Amino acid sequence: MEFVIATNNRKKLEEIGRILAALGHSGISLAAAGVAAEPPENGTTFAENAMIKAAAAHKATGKPCLADDSGLVVDALGGEPGIHSARFAGTHGDDEANNKRLLYLLERTPYAARSARFVCAMALVMPGGAALETEGVCEGRIGFAPSGTRGFGYDPLFYVGEKSFADITDDEKDKISHRARALQKLAEELPGFLAQQGAAAPDAPQEAAPADTLEAPLPIGAEELPE
Questions:
Q1: Which of 68, 69, 167, 174 is an active site residue?
Q2: Catalytic residue at 171?
Q3: Residues sharing a CB contact under 8 Å with residue 104, sequence separation 6 or more, in sequence order
Q4: Alpha-carbon distance 86 to 173, whole Å?
Q5: Tell me: the pLDDT tens digits for 156-214?
């Protein structure tokens, strides 16, 4: 199945697209589906924000739309940065500043108390409005300094065993990451979910954007997107 992936974050698009391909599915970006803007993420949980994004993309396109909301939960910080992970230091998407703030706040915290987890909520909204939600979690610890050159976000500080997410290959990460686990669950639940919706699907109303607002779908990465 092909999904509209409700994000304009190139790195997240690449990762979700890569995982979907391994699971036998595919995706196109919001831009390829003719949608320029993303809705405000004003939910109070990862699941709420994921559904806000998936529902908005479906309203604009009428297509099966998939969205994730994910972040880092640090026990020593009472669960922060949580849903504020992308703007932890004040500016949305400033990975370097976010990592620096995290290290500063944990400066006096011993390694044994640096337990943390990446959490990913995945939401799928189908034509007609039926929705499916899954969650994936990856446990780890926060290191004392960044390590590695791969990944994005907090990956250089998030250690699973002896290596950070930025130290391991894409294939290695895709076997254990929170996002991969959420998508794996979605792929496992999708056939039963679609079967349940099958009887009503042909008669279900479908919302679609006006034809002149849509562009021909392009593969992920083929369009110009912000970093």
A1: 69
A2: no
A3: none
A4: 20
A5: 999 999 999 999 999 999 999 999 999 999 999 999 999 987 744 444 434 444 433 33
